[in-house]
Amino acid sequence: MLAIKLTITQMIRAFKSSDIDAIQAMNQSEGWDNLVVRHEQTLNSWKNSVAFVFEENNEVIGCIRAITDGYVSLYVCELLVHQNHRKKGIGKALMGYVHDLYPTTRMELLATSSSKSYYEYDFRPFYGFRRTYGES
């Protein structure tokens, strides 16, 4: 993974519950309304995952949430960088940081049609299916 060199005003650190409002604001700006509406579930998912934020000048401008068995699979559930801070390597830094914690794992993630081009440079495609509880 490609990582950026962090300046004194930037850092990657573990998620804290107090970060959820900044994350929800980014979710809302992306139209990820289901995460915003289900606020308590979203917060609990962050608290019970491998989760980090990217801070600049004490402001959360990026985040990553993943789940892992620690040995084979590392699944990135959410990766988000504030729209005003994209194309600076923040997303790659977050993914590299988490993958460095679990170097024997394969990193997997889903992409939307609009984010596909961002990932296809560093990842090979794989196919899967998704269903929400109650869907037939």
Low-confidence stretches: none
Quote the beta fraction: 25-35%
Compute the number of strand runs. Answer: 5
Number of helices: 5
Main beta sheet, described? 5 strands, mixed
What is the terminal-to-terminal distance? 38 Å
Helix content: 25-40%
Describe the structure.
- The relative contact order is 0.17.
- β2 and β3 form a beta hairpin.
- The model has no long low-confidence stretch (mean pLDDT 86).
- This protein is of the alpha+beta class.
- The longest helix has 12 residues, at 90-101.
- It starts with 9 loop residues before the first strand and ends in a 17-residue tail after the last helix.
- 30% of the residues lie in helices and 26% in strands.
- It contains five helices and five strands.
- Strands 1-2-3-4-5 form a five-stranded mixed beta sheet.
Question: Which terms would index this structure?
Answer:
single chain; about 140 residues; alpha+beta; 5-stranded mixed beta sheet
Quick recap:
30% of the residues lie in helices and 26% in strands.
Topology record:
Blueprint (H helix, E strand, L loop, with lengths): L9 E5 L5 H11 L2 H5 L1 H9 L2 E7 L2 E10 L4 E9 L8 H12 L4 E4 L6 H4 L17
Parallel strand pairs: 4-5
Antiparallel strand pairs: 1-2, 2-3, 3-4
